[in-house]
Amino acid sequence: MRTKLALTAADVRQIAAACRAEAERNGWAVTIAIVDDGGHLMHLERLDARITTLDVAIRKARTAALSRMPTLAMEQRARANPVLLALDSLPLQGGLPLEHSGEFLGGIGVSGVLAPQDEQVAGAGVAVLAALGARPDAGPSPG
User: Fold this and answer.
1) pLDDT tens digits along 3-24
2) What DSSP character marks residue 112?
3) Is the Cβ–Cβ distance between 111 and 105 less than 8 Å?
4) To the nearest 5 percent, what fractions of the chain are helix, strand and coil?
5) Residue ranges of the domains in the chain?
6) CA distance 18 to 122
7) Which helix (H) or strand (E) holds 99?
8) Cα–Cα–Cα angle for 141, 40, 31, nearest 5°?
9) CATH architecture, domain defined by 5-132
């Protein structure tokens, strides 16, 4: 049997705070969704973004978590193979997987501004996870 890393509520709060700070620093109204490795919602925050961004952010986060790749990569694959659009995914840039020590822990999805900007906001959260994991007193806990 092996021990599995998992996101904690504290991890998710720190990741979300970094995403929110990046969006606010740029004046971007976005929705931020964070899911666990099974694609289940752990955090949803709407920063005065349009209502339509809610579902998009959640689906980007799920797609990144379940595919274990950035949604931009899925978008590029879907262009080459449109059958991928039939899957229960949203292959649009703005979703990033959360990974630590070779383990996939979940995903972040952002929606509300241009796709590269959505990904920039998500990237701020990914950077926090990397910093959390580098500290011996913090980071994802065994689940």
Assistant:
1) 889 999 999 999 999 999 999 9
2) S
3) no
4) 50, 20, 30
5) 5-132
6) 9
7) strand 95-100
8) 100
9) 2-Layer Sandwich (3.30)
Overall average pLDDT of the 21-30 stretch:
98
The CB density around residue 102, as the number of other CB atoms within 10 Å, is 6
Residues 6+ apart with CB under 8 A from 101: 5, 133
AA identity, residue 13: R
Name the DSSP letter for residue 84. Answer: G
134 Cβ neighbours under 8 A, 6+ residues apart: none
CA-based R_g, the chain, Å: 14
Give pLDDT tens digits for 42-98: 999 999 999 999 999 999 999 999 999 999 988 888 788 776 666 677 888 999 999
Coil, strand, or helix at residue 116?
helix
